[in-house]
Amino acid sequence: MRKKITIIGSGNVGATAALWAALKELGDIVLFNRTKGLAKGKALDLKEASPLGEFDLGIVGTDRYEDTKDSDVVVVTAGLPRQPGMSRDELLDKNAAIVRDTCASVAKFSPNSVLIVVSNPVDAMVHVAHKASGFPKSRVMGMAGILDSSRFRTFISLELGVSVEDINALVLGGHGDFMVPLPRHASVSGIPITELLTDDRINALIERTRHGGAEILSLQKVSSAYYAPAAAVEQMIEAVVRDKKRILPCVAYLQGEYGIDGIFMGVPVLLGAGGVERVLELKLNQTELAALRQSAAAVRKLVAQLRF
User: Is 175 a known active-site residue?
Assistant: First the structure.
């Protein structure tokens, strides 16, 4: 029996994530949007692409939560998009209300699902999702580190003129200005980038990574990034529905790891059918650890502004 994947929000990120998931035939897909007809139209369009893309699975669109019943994975992309000049923090109150209502409905109709939150500011929205759903912490997570790490890998590739396939990189912490790219853990075919690039160039790539989303928004003017975020979502969905046991950076709950307790933030995790099955604690040096704890402080400050 195929898995059931619901994507709440059929805007650019949600619809593109549905496409990525369909191309890999990860499961039957339900696109949900409150605007009547919008999700149905996008689902029909995607279904009509199936003979050409050679994927065969159920794809439906709906504005009724009842149609999402018994989903295995629910992806929450619903929320207002970031506008030029707007910080992720400014989205806080408006998107918190949307995510709160959404996750309460998800819990009602799919109480055993794994929740993947994409709505921004994502670190805070995962806290909202956990509170509203009542799910175990292991089944509530956010997408951030995979995207940020992909951006870091891309910029390293462009800088060195080598294939992205040969680059490994890791970005932890909150999804924003206080994210923590780890150059010591970045390599090209096993060669540390610290042996290939000067400190100045590495720092420039780190800054570009931190502002990767804003760079795209400033260029497109009317919409933020969605191809790469959607691809990151698909990687998380696949890890869960196929029980891949992938080690990926996700927004997950910390209980003392890295000396941080009681918040959701970006760390490497073992991701499988049970959701976040384990948080991996890397041996960070003092500089890296200080940066991660500074990032945690920024997340705490954001969460403290939430009105549960």
Answer: yes
